[in-house]
Design a protein that fits this description.
- The structure is a single chain.
- By secondary structure, the chain is an all-alpha fold.
- The protein has a single domain (2-456), classed as Hydantoin permease, CATH 1.10.4160.
- It has 18 helices and no strands.
- The protein starts with 14 loop residues before the first helix and ends in a 5-residue tail after the last helix.
- The chain binds phenylalanine.
- Phenylalanine (PHE) is lined by residues 25-26, 28-31, 108, 233-234, 236, 239, 241, 327, 330-331.
Length: 462
């Protein structure tokens, strides 16, 4: 196996710890905040179907590839790619793949933290009973009061960034492993309870129809790209987060089985969230396509009307913050690991630098909701007509950078790395399971990513 290399950053205590950490990375705002609103904006069922197909055919194989590369390289993605490229006699430029990932992680975390800040703010609003008996209009105005106030957003964003960097500074073993152990199960329980509430709300069937009855006339080429981009985003793929977690993985763990478990859990959380939210959207006459505020404008209505709603609301947003927290850590870990390896910094120093830079970049997102809300830099391109700087940042990272990163990872593991090395590293023999994986990363993923890109630019149409 990989006895020859050891990570300087330590490793997970066991397989379960890795599964929990990787699930913590995957399950986050992407599942509960982003999935419902992009599904809502892109017509529902058909979008969900494309997303599910992408998870199966692209997401799981790429996750296996990332874990495999990380475990073999045992360093930050930049150095892992350099080492593995040398091992395969390939061009050293492959390390740029690691760099692209670090930049993507930095950009994603800069806005991710601002949205996590909304969730933090909602913890305190629920606790104070602000949503009691709330109407859709009332909740809507609570939401805009928050997002249009840059000072408040800045305060919450700062708190969230500090929380993230404190855990990152403490390293792989302490903190992180403990948190997810409790978080993921608790999140499930609360989501199921919310689904129970949605079921009783009257519009459950309508919500299910919206999510699961595909109407292909409603989906556009851009919608397909968004679904594919989201399959990378939600599984934390294409930027080295899972790769760096893989580099702390003990040898002799089944990469295939763990990847499938993580992907299934992640998908389940997203679907449970969608099933809780859309019935409420319809029973309260809200718009499914109302954008990034969707969960912050719907769920509080449910909490405001159920017995014990203040308590459940508080718990729910606490869990959402936790889910975001465990994802945020993995967004910055590749950068911190590199600073430690190459700049000789301690983890604490590295966390301070990386965190401060990300915090500063967050201002762009904060302003997008207030002073810059009418600033649409790419309005001359029709799909970006209404996009704010935040929307563009999200689009660029999730729909362009992550799929391109995933494409490069697929090409590297299928075409550049020696076959005997991937057989050895995946440790499932050379039988049908390995061949299926190899076929998917060799052909299916690259072709799918390229075709979807070309389709959006209008070069190819299907
Ligand atoms: N997967 C996380 C979520 O769904 C976001 C994320 C993306 C984390 C990329 C790490 C890397 O919220």
């Amino acid at each position: 196996m990989t006895q020859q290399r050891k990570s300087v950053h330590g490793s997970w205590s066991n397989r379960l710890a890795f599964v929990l950490a990787a699930t913590g990375s995957a399950v986050g705002l992407g599942n509960i905040w982003k999935f419902p609103y992009i599904a809502g904006e892109n017509g529902g069922g058909a979008f969900v179907l494309v997303y599910l197909v992408c998870i199966g055919l692209i997401g799981i194989p790429i996750m296996m590839a990332e874990v495999m590369l990380g475990r073999r390289g045992r360093q930050s993605p930049i150095n892992t790619m350099r080492t593995l490229a040398a091992e395969a006699n390939a061009h050293p430029a492959w390390r740029w793949l690691g760099w692209a990932g670090v930049i993507a992680g930095f950009l994603i975390l800069s806005y991710y933290s601002v949205i996590a800040g909304w969730a933090l703010a909602y913890v305190f609003r629920s606790m104070a009973g602000v949503f009691d008996g709330a109407t859709a209009d009332g909740v809507g105005s609570i939401f805009t009061q928050l997002t249009e106030d840059p000072e408040r957003l800045l305060a919450w964003h700062t708190i969230f960034m500090v929380m993230t960097m404190v855990v990152v500074a403490r390293g792989v073993k302490s903190g992180l492993e403990q948190a997810v152990r409790f978080l993921v199960p608790a999140l499930f329980v609360l989501l199921i309870m919310l689904d129970g509430y949605a079921m009783a709300s009257g519009a459950f069937q309508q919500g299910l129809d919206f999510l699961f009855t595909p109407d292909f006339s409603k989906i556009t080429a851009n919608g397909v790209l968004i679904a594919m981009g989201h399959s990378f985003f939600t599984l934390s793929l294409g930027m080295g987060a899972i790769m760096v977690y893989g580099s702390y993985l003990p040898d002799r763990t089944s990469v295939a089985r763990t990847s499938i478990i993580i992907a299934l859990l992640d998908t389940l959380v997203a679907l449970l969230a969608g099933m809780a939210i859309f019935p409420l959207v319809f029973s309260n006459g809200l718009e499914p396509g109302s954008g990034p505020g969707l969960i912050f404008q719907t769920l509080p209505i449910a909490f405001g009307h159920m017995t014990g709603g203040d308590l459940f609301g508080t718990l729910f947003f606490v869990l959402l913050v936790f889910a975001a927290w465990t994802s945020a850590i993995s967004l910055i870990e590749p950068a911190v690991a590199w600073l430690v390896e190459n700049k000789g910094m301690t983890r604490v120093h590295a966390s301070v630098y990386a965190g401060a830079a990300t915090w500063g970049m967050g201002l762009v997102t904060i302003l997008s909701f207030s002073h810059w809300s009418d600033f649409h830099p790419l309005s001359f391109i029709s799909i970006f007509e209404k996009y704010t700087v935040f929307d563009l940042l999200d689009y660029l990272t999730a729909n362009i950078m992550l799929p391109l990163g995933g494409l490069a990872i697929a090409i590297f593991s299928a075409w550049v790395m020696r076959r005997q090395d991937s057989v050895q590293e995946l440790d499932m023999g050379d039988g049908p399971a390995y061949r299926l994986w190899h076929f998917l990363v060799c052909y299916v993923t690259p072709v799918a990513v390229v075709v979807v890109f070309l389709n959006v630019t209008g070069i190819v149409e299907f």
